[in-house]
Amino acid sequence: MTLVKPKSDDQVQGEQTKKRTHRLPRPKHGKRWSLLIVALLLILAFAGKFLLSKGPSAAAITYTEEKVPPRTITNSLTGSGTLQPANSYTVTTLIEGEVLSADFEEGDMVEQDSVLYEIDSEDAAANIEKAQISLSQAQRSYESTAENQIVKANSSGTLYTLDVKEGDEVSQGQTIATIRNDSTMTLTVPFPAEDAATFHVGQTAQVTLDGSFETLTGTVQSISGGNAVGTGNTITRDVTIAVQNPGGLSAVQVATASVNGLGSAGNGTFTYQSESTVTASASGTVAAVHVSEGSAVSKGQVLITLGGDDLEDQLQNAADSLRNAELSMENTQKQLENYTITSPISGTVIDKEYKAGDTVESGKTLCTIYDLSYLEMTLNIDELDISTVEAGQTVQITAEAVEGKTFTGVVTKVSVAGTTSGGITSYPVTVRIDETDGLLPGMNVDAEIVLEEAADTLAIPSSAVTRGSGNTSLVLITQDSPSAESAVEQESPEGYVYVQVETGISDNSYVQILSGLQEGDTVAYVTRSTESGSMMMGGMPGAMGGDMPAGMPSGMGSAPGGGMPSGGGPGGGFPG
Q1: What is the residue-averaged pLDDT of the chain?
Q2: How far apart are CA 318 and CA 311, in angstroms?
Q3: What is the pTM of this model?
């Protein structure tokens, strides 16, 4: 165990004396400079406040007064662009050859479809003739092949026999049917040559049928020119008589005849007016039969249709060849059209590259045409503003090249295909200018799109409007203004009162007043001024502890410079 000896009174008194006389540690250099800066700022602030509030150059609060007249307020967007023609066209050629004519010059007005150039087309004309021959050949081949698929009647009459049925196989040249025309029967009989010499074609004849002795009336159809020796060495001539078949005549019926009372020297057998055999033009299978035996048919009427793979292949090949010939003809004709070059649009010739006598090559530019009936320009509008732009809005156009004149355009198209650059997207807006006197394509112009416009409306400087509580706006007016009777309960400078207003559109300087003011009112707004050489510091109202001027409405901020309405921009007071 360690014992601690108690201190004597002299020892305690000596220790206390040391504590009282101990020096404080020396402060570091950083803390000392901070204290000096704070002290200096306090001194400067005090001195500034004293000079501004007491000295001869103290800041003065003044009010600018302005009448409320009607004016036009325009809210707009501005931009610039380059003028372009309404339409432009570069005329080129697809062929080569000598230019035969080019009857126009630069600066001429040309109409759409008017002839600009004629180029030698001799080779093209020869190609067209060849293409026409090939087309005719292909057409005949196709028609012939198509005809092979059908069998037609080669004469009119009665279908005496039909020798095939559906499904039969037939070969080329095979007999398909027999057609007889028995509506008229002919009878050829001999007459004495002397009597026959007195007959003439068309003369009436009488025909007597053997067996029944029935008499029919006929017509002399022909008289032979040569004589023949008949029975008993009689000199005769054959006379052919046509008789309408009453329905019972056939090719085995025998008859005699008389003409003008002169009888025939012998008899004869009736024959049909015509009898023909129908054959197949190609081999195939009977796909369809369109008539029945014994029926009346007319010349060219389809009797049967043939089918089969071979016939179908032949027809398809013929059709393909025909189509190829048609396309070749069309292409050749189009090539001929290329030798006559017409204007694609109505407009003004800007340049002419070739003249008559020159030789032009395929793909070369011949001339350029501009449609200058109106001009267009494109404005690139920021994504933040594009929603305010729409077709039909008026655009004011100015150009340095045409001084002192403003042109009027109209928005015709607002594109939704934006272009992004540097994180900002802009959208092209097309503007049309119809009155273009003095303007030319390629000129750089400035444009102002009128978004909103109010004509002959009350308007006041933007600095005169301040935001009140809620959505209200306040305006300071003189007490003798007509609208002063509608003043609101708001502390105001001597000689002035505040009224509540409704605002409309605004431009860079003025705000439209929809209600709350009337013509004849005088508005007032604060301006700051100091005497020359004065020092503006902490004595500014509302800044660094300065006092707000009497009568400023609540909501007026204490921004440096003092008194700017809450929510206002530089210069104060755009309605919020």
Answers
A1: 81
A2: 11
A3: 0.48
